[in-house]
User: Fold this.
Amino acid sequence: MKTLVIGSTVLDLVVRVDRLPQFKEDVHTQSIRASLGGMAYNVYHMLKLFKQEAVLGSPIGSGMFANCVNELLFQNEDHPIARIEGQDNGCCLCLVDQDGERTFLSHHGAEYQFDPKWFDELDFSSIERIYVSGLEVEEKTGEALVSFLEEKKKPIFFAPGPRLDQIPSDRLWRLLKLSPILHLNEEEAFHLARENKVEIAAKTLCAKTQAPV
Assistant:
């Protein structure tokens, strides 16, 4: 049985710096590298490393960044679920300081769109679960994504992500009613549960979803 991972595949530019620059400051970098990233691709890649069957439900656009993403996917023998013409992929600039803390500047593109028609040819009898993140639910096509999840009635893993306030509240609560297994860090748990202790936040969220946190 397979996991369908819905969401973004983007070009990550990982830049290592001693510290983040201040306003108008010119800072030299330690290193810079390009790699595949995005919530969906990271989860999909980890599933593959653990020899788990997975489907990458991630679209790709057309343009400079999309071409880079497509080439890196091809090298890994992966492929997007659909191609969107006339819109490029986005890019994520990831600044990593000497303590390993990450700061992101994200430009969203075609990879954050969603269309249920992309999955018409997918055999859902072989899909055991679906993984989705809040970054995709936040977007304009997030309404269609939530409706898709409601229709398919598959077990869901949901990673709300760091931009909880940007997810329309009706979409968020519709998704939580589907009893997803929540995948989130401490800060996100506090924010979603409106609590400030880990155990209480976990119990509060579990009571809402009736599923593990």
Remarks:
- The longest helix spans residues 64-75.
